[in-house]
Amino acid sequence: MPKPALRRVMTATAAAVGTLALGLTDATAHAAPAALDYVALGDSYSAGSGVLPVDPSNLLCLRSTANYPHVIADATGARLKDVTCGAAQTAHFTQAQYPGTAPQLDALGAGTDLVTLTIGGNDNSTFINAITACGTAGVLSGGKGSPCKDKHGTSFDDEIEANTYPALKAALLGVRARAPQARVAALGYPWITPAAADPSCFLKLPVAAGDVPYLRAIQAHLNDAVRRAAEETGATYVDFSEVSDGHDACEAPGTRWIEPLLFGHSLVPVHPNALGERRVAEHTMTVLGLD
Among 261, 286, 233, 228, which residue's Cα sits nearest to residue 50? Predict the structure, then answer.
């Protein structure tokens, strides 16, 4: 073959090989996107307190390595930094909760891609005070009437509106300031009580019949405060009002996502079990388009 013709063949071959290599490089890049830098914030519902195994890195926080942030990270390949902590309030986003435990917002940075959080239930001790008050009143009344509502009226709702809602909004603005490029998901709380009293549940959740819808309405108000704060700060609200219906603490094991106050199967009552943490993760991934 004449030299000019040979050179043309070699040039064409080199070009074809280069094009193939470029195509393979592009295909590889599309097949293996960069892992998300994911930071999990929040309270015991985020931490999975009561679900085994416990993260030994901070036993005070009673954080589970099977909580919903870990489920999301395992499913998506995200690089997880989990600073969730049992009993956390919105104040602990900017203040240390325990000696040696940094404020949760310190985990965020300019490179954070994804943030999830469940927070607000411990502000004003809303959950614990309402459940304790209504449980005590229910036992004393033998499950009759609405003694908790009669005594406390709108006090829990008033605290949510006056204190928790603005604190939630401030906390989410703090997240945005620390992680301006991140996608932020603020999760509501799955239902603890059914919509109406279930007499068979009284031994597990000793709340008077008239106070069951009262407690549920308080939780609905708290979730609405989370929703409003999320929408007003550019975060995504993850709503559990439909998907967690029928999975409250009165349901049987294997169906319930939340363990009851008495005779449950968790170290921490009135909190999500392992099934609940998985279902919370799955629904969150669906809402965020990560599944």
Answer: 261
Catalytic residue among 70, 92, 152, 271: 271
96 within 8 A of 104, measured Cβ to Cβ: no
Catalytic residue flag (residue 125): no
Instruction: Give the amino acid at 187.
Output: L
271 flagged as catalytic: yes
pLDDT digits (tens, 9 = 90+) for 139-176: 999 999 999 999 999 999 999 999 999 999 999 999 99
Task: Check 44, 46, 146, 244 and give the catalytic one.
Answer: 44
CA distance 126 to 103: 22
What pLDDT, in 10s, does the model give residues 198-257? 999 999 999 999 999 999 999 999 999 999 999 999 999 999 999 999 999 999 999 999
